[in-house]
Amino acid sequence: MKVLVIGGDGYCGWATALHLSNEGYEVGILDNLIRRYWDSKLGVDTLTPIASIQQRIQRWKDLTGKTIDLFVGDITDYSFLSQSLREFEPTTIVHFGEQRSAPYSMIDREHAVFTQVNNVVGTLNILYAMKEDFPDCHLVKLGTMGEYGTPNIDIEEGYITIEHNGRKDTLPYPKQPGSFYHLSKVHDSHNIHFACKIWGLRATDLNQGVVYGVLTEETGMDEIFINRLDYDGVFGTALNRFCIQAAIGHPLTVYGKGGQTRGFLDIRDTVRCVEIAIANPADAGKFRVFNQFTELFSIGDLAMMVKKAGNSMGLDVEINHLENPRVELEEHYFNAKNTNLLDLGLQPHYLSDSLLDSLLNFATKYKDRVDEQQILPKVSWRRK
Ligand code: NAD
Ligand code: USQ
Predict the structure, then answer these.
(1) Is residue 363 situated within a structural domain?
(2) Cβ(324)–Cβ(268) under 8 Å?
C-alpha cells in the first residue's frame, strides 16, 4: 500500500510517517513546512531541537534502508497537489496538513481567515484531486473531538439516531465547536461527507482528542528523528505544556475552574489508530467517523496528576488558575463514545505514572531551551 502523509513534517504526521514506513507501507510525505515558519514568525520554538525534513528522511534511509518520498509544497496550490499525487500514486492519503491551533485561529481576523482558507481549501483540493485521478483512494482525515463541543448528552461517533414527530433518521451529530480552527474541521467534515455521497469517494474522519507525549518506537530510534514538542501559549497543548511547566518550575496554567473535560491519547496510539484506519478502509461512498481518544480527563485533574508525578521526582509544582482566555464551559457533562477503533483492535497506552515520569524527564533534559515569555496565554477569545 502506498500512503501519502500530508503534513508529515508535523508532530502527529512525522511520527505516523515513520511508523507506517517501519510497518512496511510505501510512504511519501507532502508538507509545505509552513509550521516551522509560523513558529519563527511568532518567535516560538519547539522544546526539542528538530532536524530538517531532508535530514530526517536521509537518516531514516541510512538506518533502515527504507525510502520516504518527499513533496514540498502547499495543498492549497491545486496544480502542485495533483501533480504530486500523479507522481506518487497513493492508495491512501492521510491528511494532517492543516493549521491546528485554536489560539492561532483566534488572534485576529487575518489568522481566522487564513486558518479557514488553508484548512477548508486544502481539503477541498484533495477531494477534487481524488475525484479526478484517484476515486478509489481512501482518505484518512484528521478531524477533532472539538467538532462536537460539550453537549449535555452523550457524544456518538459521527452520527446520532433521532426520532422527531414520529419519524426516525440517523443524522450527522450536531456540531458546536469552540474556535475558528475547530470550525474549520466541521466545514471539512461536511465537504468530505458530501464528496463521498456525490462522487462515491471513501473517507474516514478521525475525530482526535488532545495528543500527549513525544516518543514513539520509531522517533526514539535516533536523535535526528526527535519529534516536535510544543509548550508555548499558541501551539502547546494541555498535558504537554503542564509537564514542561513543571520541569522548569513554572506554575501550571489551568484556565478558569479547570473542569473542562476532553478526550486525550498518547502519540503512540495516534500512529496506531491511523494505521488501523488505513488497514480497514471505508467502503466506496462511505464517510466513516471514528472518535480517536483513549481516556477522558478534566484539565484540573491532569494538573493534579502532573503535580503528583513532579513531586515524586523532587520537583516543586504549583497550580495556578488563570483567568480563562477562551470562551468555553468550565464545568460540564462530557461522555463520548470511542468504540470503533477499539473494535478494530486498538490496544491503548493509558496515561500512567511511567509516561508522566518519562515526559517530565524529557522536558527536564531540554529545559534550557524554554523561553518563559512564551508560556502564558496571550490570545483572547473575547471582544477587547
Ligand atoms: P503540526 O502543526 O505539528 O503539523 C501540521 C503539518 O501540516 C505541519 O508540518 C505543516 O507545515 C503542514 N501544513 C499545514 N498547512 C499545510 C498546507 N496548506 N500544505 C501543506 N502542508 C501544510 O500539527 P499536529 O499537531 O501534527 O496536528 C496534525 C493534525 O492532527 C491536524 O489536522 C490537527 O488538527 C489534528 N489534531 C491534532 C491534535 C494534537 O493534539 N496535536 C489533536 C487532534 C487533532
Ligand atoms: N487549557 C488550559 N491550560 C493550558 C492549555 C489549555 O487550561 O495551558 C485548556 C483549554 O482552555 C481547553 C483545554 O485545556 O479547555 C484543551 O486545550 P488545548 O490547548 O490542550 O487543546 P485544543 O485547543 O482543544 O486543541 C488541541 C489541538 C487541536 C486538536 C484539539 C483536540 O491543538 O489541533 O484539534 O486539541 S480537542 O481538544 O479534542 O478538540
Answers:
(1) yes
(2) no
